[in-house]
Amino acid sequence: MSVYKDLTVGLNPIQPNKDSLLSFTAVQVLVDEDDTVLSVIRNINDEKNSATIKEKMAINDFKILNPHVNPRELKKNMYYYFPLYTQK
After folding, report:
1. Which of 3, 38, 41, 81 is most buried as measured by Cβ atoms within 10 A of its Cβ?
2. Among residues 88, 87, 80, 39, which one has the least CA distance to residue 63?
3. Mean pLDDT, rounded, of the chain
């Protein structure tokens, strides 16, 4: 997996859910053949944040960043934005 921080997105943390302990910035990632939304998110986030990431929240945050993409149908060799979580 290739990770590339896009300088035009992610400059300000996104906090879509006020009850969440996490906010996120966007990271652009080149997807490989067996990657899933959850596998990429777990891979780019540190272990401390990965433990608090809920599947539904991760999918919803991916949809916010990629509104015209089905999260269950990622295409190999395509770039998508994924949430890089930080503690609030």
Report:
1. 41
2. 80
3. 83
Q: Is 83 exposed, middle or buried (0-12, 13-18, 19+ CB in 10 A)?
A: buried
Entry pTM:
0.78
- Residue 8's CB is within 10 A of a number of other CB atoms, namely 7
- Judge whether residue 9 has pLDDT over 50: no
Cα separation, 50 vs 42, whole angstroms: 6
Half-sphere exposure of 12 (CA within 13 A, CB side): 3
- pLDDT of 6 reads 46
CB 88 within 8 A of CB 22: yes
**Structural contact between residues 19 and 28, judged by C-beta atoms closer than 8 angstroms:** no
The number of beta carbons lying within 10 Å of the beta carbon of residue 71 is 15
SS3 83: strand
